[in-house]
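so my prof wants the structure for this chain in the tokens format not the other one, which i didnt know existed until like an hour ago. anyway here's the sequence
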Amino acid sequence: MSEQGEAPAVSETIAPAPAERGWGKILLAFVAFLLVPLYPELQAILPIKDTMMLFVPVVAACALVGWWAGGNAFHAIAWTGISILLLGPSGTAPTPFSSLARGWSLLLAGAFGLVCLFGNRRPLFSRALIALGITFCLATLMTVLGPMTASRASQTVSEELARRDKGWTEMLDSVITAHPKEWTQLTTNVPQFAEIRTEWPKELANFSDFGATVFPSLLALESLAAIALGWATYHRLGRTRLGAPMRPLREFRFNDQLVWGLIVGLTIVLLPTLSTVSAFGKNLLVFFGVLYAMRGLGVLSWFMAPGRFGVTLTIGVLMLFAPILNGIAAIGFVMLGVASLALGLGDTWADWRGRARPAA
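here's what i got, hopefully its the right format
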């Protein structure tokens, strides 16, 4: 997502345009959006592991707004039906967390649809941020007026993350119990594997504790990703535009004033006198830190040969699921994140992409 030019008003008649082309990158992003939450350590911190719950309602909201603007009714009806099937009542009783996740998904999709309908001249990134703000305000209001208080919601989140950790630990124990001879041989050849049974649950618990603390910021980032993917998918399926085409990652940038979010978060975390709101500061750091890291990735992609950055990133994601290479991949992603954050922050003042691009 990036700041884009003004788009035609949805309420006005929008001339049908050819559907946006290029499914390759969208499919890769979609696969990553589905598979990355399956990684145990990431599942321990990600707010909503069933990412389709976020993606489908956003596409449905885009299709409904497109229908209102004179677009295809079939897309609106079909995607709305899929959303109802996905988020509607099922055969099993919903858990408190699943109810929270469904409620958030519906609020987010509804807010984004309204922003697209009435704030239709805004660029996509601004729409997404406004939709997030509306959704958080409505969710906060519901915790004040509804039965699900903020403390109860926080407890529900912690219980859900702990349940996921327990599931992975039980799966590991069942595998070891079912293959005792192979496990003995493996730990004999590689003694380090013997520590997995005791250390991995502790590692997952640490991830979950962190995930519970920064749950709001991670939920906001996951929602932004769903909006971007849903927007891109809709504009490749339909011909009625809701705004300017989403720009590639290499052109991703946003208002430089957002750096104050990072500064405020850092100030809250570092000052002992503000320790009572340190969780809020950590959420600001995570949210704006990831945004600036994404901006840094855009800068990095700008200076690399076209397509090379995407291929490298795809290989890294696949390595996360390899038994031995996942550690190397995790370290590589951490280093990449730190370097991208530095590049993104530097871009606020240096404007790297505004300079002459070096010859390939």
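also thought this was worth mentioning. The first helix runs from residue 24 to 35.
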